[in-house]
Amino acid sequence: MRKLIIVLGCCLFHLSASTLIAQPNFIKDSLNSYIEQGMHSWNIPGLAIAIIKDGKIVVMKGFGVRNISTHEPVDENTLFMIASNSKLFTATSLSQLAYDHKLSLNDKIIKYFPDFQLYDSAVTKMVTIRDMLSHHLGTKTFQGDFSFWDSKNSRHEIMYKMRYLKPSGTFRQDFGYCNSCFLTAGEIIPKVTGKPWEVYVYDSLIQPLKMTHTQTLGYAMSRMPNAA
């Protein structure tokens, strides 16, 4: 499951230092030491930070290195993978489509994928987009995820294998963080829009926000300039 979005280290816009508003005292006096202490405590080699207040950038800056072998530094435009933060883009896209009356979050998954199955046939008939987004399938946290992670399985192959995930909890009652649930919800997007997940997200969210250096897939990240 490689639906990973790369963002400018927390920075959405290219603005020169002259456009930054006056910095509060805590940023001048203690922000650097606070971040450096946190990096040491969490063993983080590098990060980029942006602080935005009232729609204006107060500070954006890189810390540490983006490559632990070459020691190339992080700057405010360094690209990072955001891992599960990409779920926010999936949920926002589906909510946007629901707002535009292109779908309902209460639509059943089998409406779009008639052959979709979960371990319990009764749950298969009931499970909705909303259920997939809320991690209440009844499975354990990360159940099945690490057999899918970094595999060559396609998105639809991962959806197919969900039928083998035997839940230990109760549907719509017990919480279990589920990556394959979000993948399944995300695959509703091309069914409704005719665009792959990564294309729809780019067209409807990334471009309107003018996130000009953001990518929706991380496959070629090793060849991208200034990437952690």
Order of helices and strands: EHHEEEHHHHHHHHH
Helical fraction equals 25-40%
CATH topology of the largest domain: Beta-lactamase
CATH architecture level-2 label of the largest domain: 3-Layer(aba) Sandwich
CATH class categorisation of the largest domain: Alpha Beta
Instruction: Enumerate the spans where pLDDT stays under 50 for 5 or more consecutive residues.
Output: 1-20
Computed structural class:
alpha+beta
Radius of gyration, whole Å: 20 Å
Query: Given the C-alpha coordinates, what overall shape results?
Result: elongated
Mean pLDDT: 87
Reported for the largest beta sheet, the result is:
2 strands, antiparallel
Give the total of beta strands: 4
Portion of residues in beta strands equals: 5-15%
Describe this structure in words.
This protein has 228 residues and is of the alpha+beta class. The protein has two domains: 6-83 and 208-223, no CATH class; 86-203, DD-peptidase/beta-lactamase superfamily (Beta-lactamase, 3-Layer(aba) Sandwich). It has helices at 25-29, 31-42, 86-99, 109-112, 121-126, 129-134, 145-148, 155-161, 179-186, 188-193, 197-206; strands spanning 6-8, 46-53, 56-64, 79-81. The strands form two sheets. The chain has a two-stranded antiparallel sheet. The protein has a two-stranded antiparallel ribbon with strand order 2-3. β2 (46-53) and β3 (56-64) form a beta hairpin. It starts with 5 loop residues before the first strand and ends in a 22-residue tail after the last helix.
